Each structure stands twice: as C-alpha cells, then as structure tokens.
C-alpha cells in the first residue's frame, strides 16, 4: 500500500529532486490537480511528511484516488498522472 509513515519529518525529496516541506505542498483548497501537485502529495505521504489519512482529509481525496495516483506514479512516472494519460492507460490492457 503506502510506505511507512514517519511522524515529524521536516522535509522530503519532491518529484523534481528538491526538498519539499509542508509549506511547499499544494494549498488545502486545491481544485486543479496538475501532475506536479499530485506527485508532490504522493512524495509527501511516501516520505512521511503527511500520513495517508491526513493527505486525504486535507485535499478531500478518497483513499482509492490517492492510491491510484501512487500506482500510476510508480508505474508510469509523473507524465502518467496527466488526466488524458490516465484515460489512455485505462483503455489499454495491462501486460505482466
């Protein structure tokens, strides 16, 4: 599922390789989810800056939506998080 939450992390490494703190995260009232913002939230949860529950509460996300971002990021990188790309990926059968 998600990597272990480490309470009290001051910063994590963001998707672009730079340090990411709570202050650098998207605002709680974010409505437009561009790929960078999605990747930042996933990095924050993976690195222990936010717990999964905190991230879902803060951004009004379902656990399933967050986990889909995480899976897509792991499988296809930041570019895979584009809405149009997600639609393309869903249309294709998965090859294992």
Structure description:
This protein starts with 11 loop residues before the first strand and ends in a 5-residue tail after the last helix. Mean pLDDT is 85; it is low at 1-5. The longest helix has 14 residues, at 63-76. 46% of the residues lie in helices and 4% in strands. With 96 residues, it is mostly helical. The chain is built from 4 helices and 2 strands. The chain has one domain (12-91): Winged helix-like DNA-binding domain superfamily/Winged helix DNA-binding domain (Arc Repressor Mutant, subunit A). A two-stranded antiparallel sheet has the order 1-2.
Structural key phrases:
Arc Repressor Mutant, subunit A; 96 residues; 2 strands; single chain; two-stranded antiparallel sheet; mainly alpha
Count of helix runs: 4
CATH superfamily: Winged helix-like DNA-binding domain superfamily/Winged helix DNA-binding domain
Question: Can you tell me the number of structural domains?
Answer: 1
Helix share, percent: 40-55%
CATH architecture classification name = Orthogonal Bundle
What is the average of the pLDDT values?
85
């Amino acid at each position: 599922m998600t990597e272990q939450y480490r309470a009290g992390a001051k910063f994590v490494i963001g998707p672009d390789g730079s340090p990411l703190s709570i202050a650098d995260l998207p605002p709680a009232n974010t409505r437009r989810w561009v790929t960078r913002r999605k990747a930042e939230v996933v990095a924050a949860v993976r690195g222990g800056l936010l717990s999964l529950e905190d991230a879902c509460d803060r951004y009004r996300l379902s656990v399933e939506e967050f986990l889909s971002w995480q899976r897509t990021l792991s499988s296809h990188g930041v570019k895979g998080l584009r809405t149009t790309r997600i639609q393309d990926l869903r249309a294709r059968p998965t090859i294992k």
